[in-house]
Amino acid sequence: MAIADLQTFTGLTDADIDNVARELDAIRTDVENSRGERDARYIRRTIVLQRALEVAGRLALTAGSSRAGWWAGAVTLALARIIENMEIGHNVIHGQWDWMNDPEIHSSSWEWDMAGSAAHWRFTHNFQHHKYTNVLGMDTDLGYGFLRVTHEQRWRWHHIGNVLFNAMLTLGFEWGVALQNSRSEIRKLFTTQDGSARASLRQRWSKAISQVVKDYVAVPLLTALSPRATVRSTLTANLVANAIRNAWAYSVIFCGHFPDGAEKFTEHDVSVEKKGEWYLRQLLGSANIEAGPLLAFLTGNLCYQIEHHLYPDLPSNRLAEIAVRVQAVCRKYRLPYTSGSFVVQYAQSWRTVAKLSLPALGRQRRVRRFGPVVM
């Protein structure tokens, strides 16, 4: 059940909440003051690696259309796109590297390799999702407008297809991102003749169309100039690479937001929310994935989803060290810190989607979740 009163749920006093905010602010200040060449080198090397993988994938596809070469090219391209979207695009657009003042690695100029436009995503994700994290009716990432992911969402007939829609979102996740909020913009366009809605729709469709042309027309035609490659082999490789990237991105995002322990919140006036309450909502509404260095890198360091939500604009390569200090704060104030294996959290997310495809047969009483703190 969604949380209506953070203070009652956590058992913290006003003074405790203020102290939590001060301690989490101190972590931010320490990291901001220590950013430097090591961090800049990390993102630049990541970009070089991603581009090298992209080139390697293209070369594998132009070298021939054998089954082994095709799979090598498709998987390498998928890996390149995962890194571009997760560790580079997502984090650059969040402004994690703006402090470098590098115009090529800046949130205002980066456009990522997917159907959704960066400008649209900066609003739906950076603003709507991170400001109103898991608040029903305010965070459009809760179900992306068609999935039912909590009992408080009113059941409608189309929710019976929750599992099917979730599978479609898995393979076409970039289109879920690209089309997010489009229904409300179309409604504004026809009911109020809103000029901003028209401009937004034009921008998002321009990006989506250009992405389709690049992936499924231009690049396959260019690859076919090689006598050992075909339009069809490159087109299908791009399609498979995008599907792999979409499924991976979906899995990471859902593991961080919808497993057991990732709380939801009833709609309330966020404008009067204290900073400590905002911190608590980020902490309670997110879940981490237990990961080693390689898995952390492939998730864009979103295996530290809690820390990312507390500090969305701090460099992703610093989240592991930040997590140690955040866990200490959680222990001190007896706050839940939800973390689990990728497989378990992925399964829990699907279980939630399946259960909520049917009307709720009853309501569970909300109880204060102290429980053991997971580290």
Automatic annotation (TrEMBL):
GO terms for cellular component: membrane. PANTHER family: DELTA(5) FATTY ACID DESATURASE C-RELATED, FATTY ACID DESATURASE 2. One of its GO terms (molecular function) is oxidoreductase activity, acting on paired donors, with oxidation of a pair of donors resulting in the reduction of molecular oxygen to two molecules of water. InterPro entries: FA_desaturase_dom, Fatty_acid_desaturase. CDD domains: Delta6-FADS-like (cd03506). It holds the Pfam family FA_desaturase. GO terms for biological process: lipid biosynthetic process. It comes from the Bacteria. Residues 69-339 form the Fatty acid desaturase domain. This is Stearoyl-CoA 9-desaturase.
